[in-house]
Structure formats: C-alpha cells, structure tokens
Amino acid sequence: MSRSDQAFLLLAFIACTTSVAFTSFVLTAVPTLLAMGRAASSFAKLADTARQELPSTLAAIRLSGMEISDLTLELSELSHEVTEGVNKSAKAVQAAEAGIRQIGTLAHQQTLSMIDERASLPEISLQPVVAGAAKRTSHAIGKASKTLMNIITGGDKDEDSS
Asked: Which PANTHER family does this chain map to (predicted)?
C-alpha cells in the first residue's frame, strides 16, 4: 500500500472513531439535556410560587415582629407597675408595723398609768374603778386604732384629738 492509501485509511479510521465518539456523546447527552429541561421547568414553578407566596410570608413575619415588640413593651410596663405595687405594699406594711408598735407602747403606758393610779385607791372603790379602767382602755385602743388607720391611709394625725 502506498503512502496516500495509508493516509486515507488513517483519516477514515479517525473519522469513524470521531463519529462514533460524537454519536455516543450525543446519545448520553440527550437524557442529561432532558433532565436539565425538567429541572429548569421545576425551578420556574418554584420561582413562581416564591414570587406569589414570599411577600405575604414576609408581611406576616414583619407583623409578628411588631406584635412581639409591642408585647415586650407591655411586659416591661407591667413589670414596672408590679414593682411599684410591691414597693407601695412594703411601705404600707412598714407603716402598719410602726402603728402597731405605737399602739402597743401607748396601751402599755396607759395601762401602767392606770395601774399606778388605782394602786393608791382604797379597796372599796375598786369595783367602779375596774369598770372605768375598762372604759379608758377601750378608749385608748380606739385612739390607737384611729392613729394606725391615719398612718396607713396617710391622713392627718391630728384628727384623733376629738
């Protein structure tokens, strides 16, 4: 065989090999291209759905955020109100405690003064004295109660002079 025939056969072999390779490439690329077409179609549907649903979802999220912010502010205000209430209650308890101590001291002093006053009386006059002491003790307790109520309510402390 001559050189030109050998070159022709080599070119023919290369052409056949190339065409077989190209054909196999096309045959394997077709399913891949079809799958890519289906993926592009699915992506287009997903994009349409996102375009329709995303604005309303974002609006709902934005509204939820504003509601959470409002609730946080309300809880903060409520916390401050509860703190103020607790502080006022503590002050009222302290005032009541001070009033009770004042009543106890006043009752103790009145009782001691009545006992000292009655100790010097003769025994015959003790029966009306016991009734009078009970009356005075009742009056002292009433006075102390008024004083305590004035302390708790913040009223004038001079009202009990009647």
From this structure: CHITINASE-LIKE PROTEIN (PTHR33825:SF14)
The DSSP code for 158 is T
**Hey, where are the domains in the chain?**
3-161
pLDDT digits (tens, 9 = 90+) for 1-18: 789 999 999 999 999 999
pLDDT tens digits along 13-55: 999 999 999 999 999 999 999 999 999 999 999 999 989 988 9
Q: Characterize 26-63 residue by residue with b for buried, 16 or more Cβ atoms within 10 angstroms of its Cβ, and e for exposed.
A: eeeeeeeeeeeeeeeeeeeeeeeeeeeeeeeeeeeeee
Give the DSSP letter string of 105-126: HHHHHHHHHHHHHHHTS-GGGH
Question: Quick check: 152 and 104 in contact, CB under 8 A?
Answer: no
> Left if phi > 0, otherwise alpha if psi is -120 to 50, otherwise beta: which for 154?
left
Taking the model in full, what pTM does it have? 0.41
Which are the contacts of 92, defined by CB distance < 8 A and separation ≥ 6?
A: 152
| Single-letter amino acid, residue 139 | H
20 DSSP 8-state letter: H
